[in-house]
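User: Please predict the structure of the protein below. I'd like the answer in structure-token form so I can feed it into my own downstream comparison script.

Assistant: Understood. Taking the following sequence of 104 residues as input:
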Amino acid sequence: MGVIDPNGRRVVAYGNPAYADSGPVDGDTIFKIGSVTKVFTSLALADMVRRKEIALDDPAARYLSENVVMRNGKSITLRDLSTHSSGLPSLPGNLNRKDRSQSL
């Protein structure tokens, strides 16, 4: 965890790396963050709605390039995306991972 306080900046680390890396956990240790990004995205979305920059029922296509087609033209809103009810797959079909046993 990164901490910024009146004494400056520092990293507080605890634990062991999840993989074969035998080094200590520190500010340079790489972790999968997975679903943590959903928290930041939802906070940004909520703030933009609060400031009336966007609406939850706006079509997501409004914010994409014209050549992007979502789900065979189905209308998907920002609300659908934020509540995971869009019907889109969890992972893109063209994502090729070396080890499929590991989650993202």
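That's the full token string. DSSP finds two helices and two strands in the chain.
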